[in-house]
Amino acid sequence: MTKIHLPFVQKFGRYCYFRRAGSPRIRLRGIPGSAEFMDAYQQALAAAPLPIGQDKRSKPGSVSEAVAGYYTSQNFRALTGGTPRKRRALLEGFRAEHGHRQLATLPREFIVALLDTMPPFQARNWLTAFRHFAGWAVERKLLKTDPTLGIKLKAPKSDGHHSWSDAEIATYEAQHPIGSKARLAIGLGLFTAQRRSDVIRIGRQNIKNGVLTLRQQKTGTTLAIPVHAELAKIIAASATGDLTFLVTNRGRPFSGNGLNDAFRDWCNEAGLPTTCKFHGLRKAALTRLAEAGCTVHEIQAISGHKNLKEVEHYTRAVDQARLARAAMERIGNESVKNDFPEVSKPLNQLPKKAG
Description:
Blueprint: E1 2-3, E2 9-12, E3 15-18, E4 26-28, H1 35-47, H2 63-71, H3 74-77, H4 83-98, H5 108-116, H6 120-139, H7 166-175, H8 181-192, H9 196-199, E5 207-208, E6 211-215, E7 222-226, H10 229-237, H11 256-269, H12 279-291, H13 296-303, H14 308-330
């Protein structure tokens, strides 16, 4: 058994598991340190109950006492969507290892050294969570100054979640015909362009006169989206729940993690790679809207993005491809002159220059 440098994480054979006393063992998917792995770890940490006697560590002025107070503050309760769960998971990991320390004595160097032990994605997310907590602690005079001031991390190079290709969508749909729960799930993801947290809450009560109305959990934005004809066809052919279209085998609404696990199984059945995730459907849907010629404001009206720059990411990529095609069409069938002689043999077979 090998210990991984994360609280409550252990490795057995090929797999890593989250194991906290008093809670069941949870397998953590993904390669240790990857974004997928850290997301699974944060979810497990947030879901697991605190150990018995946790309050005994909360001595006056300690990290543990301050974190507990932060959870009851307006600062924390004002967070929306999945942010509170994720930030609590990150802080609980810190609390488990350093809860006994005096918060006021933690120097900036301690924070920097701690960040150096984390993978890039975890470090960036942890710093965001701790910075919000430290700001609250300064307001409450638990800290004189914010120890995270001046700490900057280079953004990890990533395009985020993989956006499904048309071929991957076709492969999935070939495996899961209309009428199946798996097809209903991908239909809701592709034809509403909503996040998983909103898709699992959509039901018949959200649709009236062909318009889907919902209030996004993450942003609080209210959207009214016309129901696509293909989605209406899928819903009509599917067995659905009373309050939500998607339900488990027991007839209950899916949790976010529950849909993730089920969707992974459906993707495995279709032989799709692990990069195909539910959130990637949102990106694919927005890309399709951009390819159809929708403006950033039209896409925003469906996606609910607060920031237009996030939407422009999709239109820029599509505009580049469209402009490139137009440029090539202008030269028609004219051949491009090639000033280089044709090489018919591999480089290692070409005659060598004497001397």
